[in-house]
Design brief:
Radius of gyration of chain A: 17 Å
Strand order of the largest sheet of chain A: 2-3-4-12-7-10
Largest sheet of chain A: 6 strands, antiparallel
CATH superfamily of chain A: Jelly Rolls
Shape of chain A: globular
Number of domains of chain A: 1
Distance between the termini of chain A: 40 Å
Largest interface: A-B, 50 and 50 residues
Order of helices and strands of chain A: EEHEEEEEEEEEEHEE
Oligomer: homodimer
Helix content of chain A: under 10%
CATH class of chain A: Mainly Beta
CATH architecture of chain A: Sandwich
């Protein structure tokens, strides 16, 4: 028996139409928070100099970071591109790599790109009503390929899993999703570092 | 490091409007599966003798029952009453009691009633867009108070949590949700056994 924090039940609202909660503040990732994450960093800098817009927002609710608890919330990823690369979340491994995550798409059109430390890449398409299971050991990133709509998902994972953002911030993903001939195309990341 | 089964990513569809998956078969609980669960078992028997209708259905996707995995799916609880008691799921503890569960309501109107082994009861109202956090150690049951609509929720919990249905099947919940003066009312369960 692992000792756990006793907490009470909670009801937290996340509007199905826009993913936002009237009950909590979201964490926000602006273009300027994405420095170095996109292939075309010059295009990124130019965009920021014009307007530092919101790329995505998500919720961290402060669930105790213990193995018996489940962290949950929504991610709202707005439409856009940096160069020919679609707006995306930074993506992360879990600090406890052997923990899965589940996404349930409420709105929009996009992909989750996943890769494990052995270099296996997986990709799943998201449309409203699609749940995507990110298995243990896979870094994962959401990508919005819609021109108009935000990509909105409900997510859940073991609350002690933690986030390792640094590996991706340093090395990048092996694969990137870019627009090519008007369609999404997964390409090798020329900036990926072993 | 816990050893875990390596599985690939998955995309499973659950229609947002009716909760049903075109990719998997649901598990179904008919009125006849609910023998002894409602206060008015005579009313239940009478209903079954007329037509053994579907009370609820849900998905078990066969995610490995290990602590690094997350089980997920939808529950579709249909509207109805047995006597003056609203249609509900059987409800269960997790076999590993120290594990939480998260529900995200997609449609309908209902409640989740929870109780822990110390006799503390909690209740949260569900409407579309409301996520309800069931903390570790709480048995939980969904109850549909709508006259027309199914109560549809997406759920996620640690895949090794397991289900202890027997405690509730034997003892019941301490509290029941019945219709009283046209409104839901939480009452003491006269049949509850210590």
């Amino acid at each position: 028996m692992v000792e756990i924090k006793n907490i009470k039940s909670m009801a937290i609202r996340f509007d199905i139409s826009n993913g936002l909660s009237p009950d909590r503040d979201s964490k926000k990732r602006m273009l300027s928070d994405m420095d170095g994450m996109y292939l075309d960093n010059i295009a990124l800098k130019e965009m920021i100099s014009k307007q530092d817009i919101l790329v995505y927002e998500f919720y961290e609710l402060g669930i105790p970071e213990e193995p018996g608890h489940i962290a949950f919330g929504t991610t709202i990823l707005y439409p856009g591109k940096v160069g020919n690369e679609f707006f995306m979340t930074k993506g992360h491994f879990h600090s406890i790599q052997e923990t899965a995550e589940i996404y349930y798409c409420l709105k929009g059109h996009g992909f989750i790109v996943m890769e494990n430390p052995n270099g296996i890449t997986e990709m799943q398409e998201m449309n409203p009503g699609v749940s995507v299971y990110v298995p243990p050991r896979y870094a994962h990133r959401s990508i919005n390929v819609s021109k108009k709509e935000p990509l909105i998902s409900f997510f859940a994972f073991r609350a002690d899993a933690g986030h390792d953002y640094k590996t991706i911030e340093t090395k990048g993903f092996r694969k990137l999703l870019v627009e090519y001939d008007g369609k999404p195309k997964l390409i090798d990341n020329p900036k990926w570092k072993l």
